Amino acid sequence: MTDQIEMAELHGQPVIKLQTPDGAVALISLFGAQVLSWTPAGGEDRLYLSPKAVFDGETAIRGGVPVCFPQFGELGTLPKHGFARKQRWEVTNTRPGKDFTLVTLRLVDNEETRALWPHAFAAEMSIAIGAGRLDIEFEVENTGDTPFSFTAALHTYLKVKEVEAVRIEGLRGLEYRDCVDGNTPKLEMNTSVIIEEKVDRIYHGMPPALLVHEDHRTLGIHAENCPDVVIWNPWEHKCANLADMPADGFRHMLCVEAAVVRQPVELAAGESWWGRQSLVAM
To answer: Does the keyword Mitochondrion apply (predicted)?
Structure first.
């Protein structure tokens, strides 16, 4: 490790602390390869981590950027959002640079994953910070002899001052599935999407860029090879029923997730897939 990359602890669990020469900082949990915090140089933390999140090495951590794999949500027979976010990942590469810092973590199939999903695979998360950016690349390789398919998402919890003051631009004209309204297919007609009630939507056709505006700042979200984008906020009643969220937590978070959901990825033996999401502080 170097002065830009060091091991630390958060609530008793091991994390990697990334720093850049200009002062940006990120924390990544080895449990789930989950980015928990990202603070651009001279700015504020842009990711929401619930103050009631559980850090016991077994329970999914509420907040940051959980990795949903090999199943998104309940769209299959596996536990919700799959198993990757509840596995211990291994650090395989670190790279400090003049204006960036990068770490790569790896997960391969094991007895526990094969009991749930009988496939051989290798997954990698490459996380880099620098120049006001957080870049996350997720790669999956089929290391077995038979094909498999999966869905996935980078379940990003953005930290906001007040969710009702947020405007999301870039979704106009996209079809989406409204999971609050019985999975009804709809078309987004609004130039700016605002959050005034429970929202759970899967948009199809991720645009090259989304802009999340608040009164005092903007966040750009760019995705590659992730054709869907999920927008989620549990709102008041559901939030009150989440043991690992404060009652008013919904006001200070908004999930905007690069995903591959509608059309599962199919990998033949030896094939691989990758998807990327970049957050740019403005």
So the answer is: no
Enter the pTM of the model: 0.97
Q: Which residues contact 52 (CB under 8 A, 6 or more apart)?
A: 62, 243, 244, 245, 246, 249
Annotated catalytic residue within 119, 252, 257, 271:
257
CATH number, residue 156: 2.70.98.10
Pairing of strands 25-29, 218-224: unpaired
Mean pLDDT of 3-21: 95
Looking only at the bridges linking them, the beta strands covering 209-213 and 253-267 are unpaired
* Total domain count, the chain: 1
User: Is 155 one of the catalytic residues?
Assistant: yes
Length of the chain: 282
Tokens 């596996």, residue located: 78
At 22-70, the pLDDT tens digits run 999 999 999 999 999 999 999 999 999 999 999 999 999 999 999 999 9
One of 155, 162, 216, 236 is an active-site residue; which one?
Answer: 155
Domain residue limits at 64:
5-281
